[in-house]
Amino acid sequence: MNITLRQLRAFYEVAKTQSFTLAASNMKLTQSAVSMLVRQLEAEYGLALFNRVQRSAQLTEVGRQMLPITERMLEDLRQVHEGAADLKALRRGTLRIAVPQMLACSWLPPLAAEFMAAFPDIGLHVMDTTGDRIVSAVQDNEAEIGIGPQRPAPAEIAAEPLWEEPIQVALPRNSPLGDADCLTWKDLRGENWIQYSDDFTLYLERTIWAKLPIPDARTTNVRYLTTALSFVGLGLGVTAAPQYARSFADQFAVRFARIEAGRIMRAFYIYSRKNHSRSPAANAFISFLNNKIGNSS
């Protein structure tokens, strides 16, 4: 069965006006065109919808039963059209985003508040997770876009750079290393390292720790940066964290120190699926982020 919207609309207009002439005027078509559309629909159904009586068109019993069904179909299609227009105009929609937990509770909230004030009809769904899970969350469609540190991405995931963040060391406030604002990796050789990211740990192992081996007995593994900072605050070790984590120094009773030599910069990216059209809400948020980051750089 190959029924078209124009055929349904022709049937509806003729049924309401009981006239092919008036229906043609409403549809801005010729009478013969409307008559052809109705005949095509009747052929598809294999049933007569109208009794042609002189110049009027009266519904058959089948036509009377089909009219309310057709009205519902046309109304559903109208709502689909309006819904698409609203999505395009950002009058509805949902932004689904995956963000590392610490970023989600420090960097994201003020930006989300400003974005939602500009687009109050857009809903927000935040998947706060580990940095190692951002790419897979996008790949598995748990989120439309992800924002997080650089990670290996499969071929079907696009990565667009956003900004770079210096990595600093979080230490207990009573650390024997004192109150120095700058340290070297060598200064930290004897510390117990609290590890929270498999990917970042591998990066440190390949770059820094290869030169300054750290025994396995001097490492502790957790899942979240917040947990790592809690361990550091209790004097159980040190950890490496992005600079934005400094805002939680008082909460976790830690202090942050810069690395004087061998400074590490971590790139942060927007991740999305290739060959998938992004929603208007996602495109608007990405444009908003790029403008904010561009203005602050």
From TrEMBL:
Q: Domain HTH lysR-type: where?
A: 3-60
Record's keyword terms, sorted: DNA-binding, Transcription, Transcription regulation
Q: What SUPFAM superfamilies does the annotation carry?
A: Periplasmic binding protein-like II, Winged helix' DNA-binding domain
Q: Which Pfam families match?
A: HTH_1 (PF00126), LysR_substrate (PF03466)
Note the Gene3D superfamilies from the entry: 3.40.190.290, Winged helix-like DNA-binding domain superfamily/Winged helix DNA-binding domain
Q: Which GO terms describe its cellular component?
A: cytosol
Q: Does the keyword Transcription apply?
A: yes
Q: Which GO terms describe its molecular function?
A: DNA binding; DNA-binding transcription factor activity
Q: Which family does it belong to?
A: Belongs to the LysR transcriptional regulatory family.
Q: What is this protein called?
A: LysR family transcriptional regulator
